[in-house]
Write a structure and sequence with these properties.
two-stranded antiparallel ribbon, about 500 residues, globular, about 10% strand, 2-methylcitrate dehydratase PrpD, alpha+beta
Length: about 500
């Protein structure tokens, strides 16, 4: 039975025992030796495939080239204390890709996030829990872990992140959601390595302390840092675990202290939060509450792309701006204010905006999907596509507004009614009004075409085509689906070697 833990600010004189601190309770979850359920094992494999898909598709995009070039400047070396064999980089040949694990997590984390095309979980906060996989996998490769250990570590990373996302909202205080990745990745690495509760407790505290940042990275003209931010959190988590293993301590209590996160970064010293955590001996199943993307766009856009495809087929006349007077999207508070017209960001209507900005513009995404009846991870963001005259004309007729019922469903903890869509009213110039609605994306577990192993594999094959040799595609898919059987030191089989030349970035400091 999941238990909700109340988290609030304590004055220093109250001397909150560490056993009562949230970071310690998260560490206790990480050290629980409970077995991983078979359906969770299957989903972990699915998400490793999913991450590999989107990472391969973005191998020569500028942020990945930069991060990979940086990582290759940090080859694994012998040092004092804990050493290992290094970790591998997506796309790079094994013979020159072994780098220090925190740098592998950095490069692979950027590759996974760049296209905004992997898994998601939305509750009080929003997140991409698949961001936990690069740092946990990097450490697993470095230390020679086996497949079962990796699965356990990833199950913990998902559990901790999802539970934090259910209980603690960051964005209302303009704190970026990567602040939940530092603790979750640190916890997952702790499980992977079988560390004791005190080390994991200290690592979680450091992981949180070093990854709190503002949401300006997702506001206005969105920069390439958006892809780097979660990778930075994963890198910091590895470094935090390393320091904790060497006996170094963290700010305590990190959440509850009078100068801590709740008091000064979140809702203040009078606020409290309820964080649900599994009881001791309860299986870690949070990964099953998460969902991936069929389309390369912000998750709140997934259902809208599917609805736009449907409208494109049912009412082809709406693709022509000359036939349309207005398009009103009624949706949740989050969708309206973050990626809709409620954000008051003129860039969301700017045909010269960056891909990262267009990815966070429901007016743009709905317009293109409505006109094309499809969505492509490259073509739909091309400058010539965004600047098309008829697209700009239709785009500027799309607005959003908050609907309280869709907001309620967005925040519902009942998975059966939780929704990320809304309703649309398309008013034509002849006075006809076309209405329709959608609750969840087609690929959602409750959607029209839920993703299963077949769809994950197809996504990988589609995105890897032309970038990875056919025999390498088959080798990877065989290895990852045998993950529980992979022995110590065999996790390098989860790397993928590209068949195309990997670009290098311009010179920096190292």
């Amino acid at each position: 039975m999941t238990v909700k833990h109340t988290v609030r600010t304590y004055s220093s004189k109250e001397n909150l025992p560490r056993e009562e601190q949230l970071a310690y309770k998260l560490a206790k979850v990480a050290t629980d030796p409970v077995e991983v359920d078979p359906d969770v094992v299957d989903m972990v494999i699915n998400r490793i495939i999913d991450n590999a898909s989107v990472a391969i598709a973005s191998l020569n995009r500028a942020p990945i080239v930069s991060a990979r070039t940086q990582a290759l400047g940090h080859k694994v070396t012998e040092g004092s204390g804990f050493t290992g064999n290094g970790a591998l980089l997506y796309g790079a040949p094994d013979n020159n890709a072994a780098v220090s694990p925190e740098w592998a997590a950095w490069a692979n984390g950027v590759a996974v996030r760049e296209l905004d095309y992997h898994d998601t979980f939305l509750a009080a906060e929003y997140s991409h829990p698949g961001d936990n996989i690069p740092p946990i996998l990097a450490v697993a490769q470095h230390v020679g872990s086996n497949g079962k250990d990796l699965i356990r570590g990833i199950a913990t990373g998902y559990e901790v992140q999802v539970d934090l996302v259910k209980g603690i909202c960051l964005h209302e205080h303009k704190i970026d959601h990567i602040a939940h990745i530092g603790p979750s990745a640190a916890a997952g690495i702790g499980t992977l390595l079988g560390l004791d509760i005190e080390i994991i407790f200290q690592a979680i505290g450091q992981g949180l302390h070093t990854t709190t940042a503002t949401r300006q990275s997702r506001k206005g003209e969105i920069s390439t840092w958006k892809a780097h931010a979660p990778a930075f959190a994963g890198k910091m988590a590895i470094e935090a675990v390393d320091r904790a293993m060497r006996g170094q301590t963290s700010p305590t209590p990190i959440y509850e202290g009078e100068d801590g996160v709740i008091a000064w970064l979140l809702s203040g010293p009078d606020a409290s939060y309820e964080v649900p955590l599994p009881e001791q001996g309860e299986a870690k199943r949070a990964i099953l509450d998460t969902y991936t993307k069929e389309h390369s766009a912000e998750y709140q856009a997934q259902a809208w792309i599917d609805l736009a495809r449907k409208l494109h087929n049912d009412h082809p006349e709406v693709a022509d701006p000359n036939n349309v007077q207005s398009i009103l999207i009624k949706t949740s508070h989050h969708t309206h204010y973050v990626i809709g017209s409620g954000a008051n960001d003129p860039q969301k209507y700017d045909p010269t905006a960056s891909r990262e900005t267009l990815d966070h513009s429901i007016p743009y995404i709905f317009t293109v999907a409505l006109q094309d009846g499809a969505w492509h991870h490259v073509d739909s963001y091309a400058p010539e596509r965004a600047g098309r005259e008829d697209t700009v004309a239709l785009w500027n007729k799309v607005t959003t507004e908050e609907d309280p019922e869709w907001t309620r469903r967005y925040h519902s903890l009942d998975i059966s009614e939780k929704a990320f869509g809304g309703s649309v009213e398309i008013t034509l110039t002849d006075g006809t009004v076309i209405t329709d609605q959608i609750a969840v994306a087609d690929a959602h577990p409750l959607g029209a075409r839920p993703f299963a192993r077949e769809q994950y594999i197809n996504k990988f094959r589609t995105l890897a085509e032309g970038l990875v040799a056919p025999e390498e595609i088959e080798r990877f898919l065989d290895a990852v689906q045998r993950l529980p059987e992979l022995g110590a030191g065999e996790l390098g089989q989860l790397n993928i070697v590209a068949a195309v030349e990997l670009e290098k970035a311009q010179k920096g400091i190292f």
